[in-house]
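Protocol step 4 of 6: structure prediction from sequence.
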Amino acid sequence: MGRILAIDFGLKRTGIAVTDPLKIIASALTTVPTAGVLDFLTKYCAEEEVESFVVGLPLHPDGNPAQIAPQADAFAERLKKLFPGKAVVRQDERHTSNEAKRIILQSGIKKQKRRDKTLVDKIAAALILEQYMQENYWE
């Protein structure tokens, strides 16, 4: 059974989350510089069985595309070409970064660590993955 890998695409950094092979648990995996994300994904997919990708769909609260949407769309298209045998689906990512910040704040992590933006990115990716799984796998 393959994992589902979720991506919170950003212009500088990209957060990545993944399920376990049974698709029960969504976990934050890492944050990588966006310039190296395709190389990271190629290596990861060579080591782990990945069934599909969930790429965050950046929208404003009113549902209109966010400013980064064209770049996220282009990234999703590159993924489809790089991994033609794997599904690439889009998932609304509204509020995931703010929710990630709230989770980090409530977790009791010290202020210095809370400033680490890579933590927000990978937790946001995990939230995107959880939302996708709730809508498509979990009841």
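Step 5 (inspection) to follow. The radius of gyration is 14 Å.
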